[in-house]
Design brief:
single chain, 214 residues, mainly alpha, rod-shaped
Length: 214
């Protein structure tokens, strides 16, 4: 393989296009150009060629992952799925994830804690739904079990807030509405018995003349 041309890229002064045997082969930074000692007319070994392609793919995968992490915390599985979606090789994907874990960019335990807190606060989700969603995001059962106190002991007050958002300070009109309400609460991740208990308390408070505060 002979390097037949090296051209500065139009949209980036620090990147160069390298042509081998008359055809475009890959792009490199100005630093890589010096590091690999790439020069027109020089031959390029297959070993060095593969090394350059691997490092280019790794750098691109790492950039993709870091950009993906820029929006919010991500689980290991979310990063893995994102990189595989862009067809990065398994070796590169695992290498990038290892780097992110080593430097604290990925931490499934911290992710689980933040996810539980956020979904409780913004969505009012119950423990059952939270557990299911964490599993879908690839969080291990071992990590989830570490939050059992938070996930298995839904606060009645949280459930009553969810009830009030639906009923807006009134009791259910009939059994049909009550059944729809229970369906809503179960979809939000609350156990049926807890939902039943919360509704009973909610109605008692209304009958006692207490205005429910969100």
């Amino acid at each position: 393989m002979i390097i037949t041309d090296i051209q500065r890229q139009k949209h980036s002064e620090k990147r160069f296009s390298v042509y081998i045997d008359g055809k475009y082969s890959f792009g490199v930074t100005d630093i890589d150009l010096l590091y690999y000692k790439l020069k027109i007319g020089e031959s390029l070994s297959e070993e060095k060629y593969n090394e350059i392609l691997y490092n280019n793919a790794y750098a691109k995968a790492k950039e993709t992952a870091l950009r993906f992490l820029g929006f919010r915390m991500r689980s290991r599985k979310e990063i893995y799925d994102r990189l595989k979606k862009d067809d990065f090789a398994e070796e590169i994907t695992e290498g990038v994830i290892a780097f992110l874990e080593e430097y604290g960019y990925i931490d499934d335990k911290a992710f689980a804690k933040a996810y539980i807190d956020e979904k409780r606060r913004l969505k009012g989700y119950g423990g059952i739904r939270l557990k299911q969603e964490l599993l879908c995001k690839g969080i291990s059962r071992e990590i989830i079990d570490g939050f059992s106190d938070e996930l298995e002991n839904d606060d009645i007050e949280i459930i009553k807030k969810a009830i009030d958002k639906k009923l807006k300070g009134r009791p259910p009109e009939d059994m049909k509405e009550k059944q729809r309400l229970f369906g809503h609460l179960i979809r939000k991740g609350f156990p049926y018995e807890k939902a039943k208990e919360a509704l009973a308390e909610y109605i008692e408070e209304l009958e006692a003349g207490e205005e429910y505060e969100d």
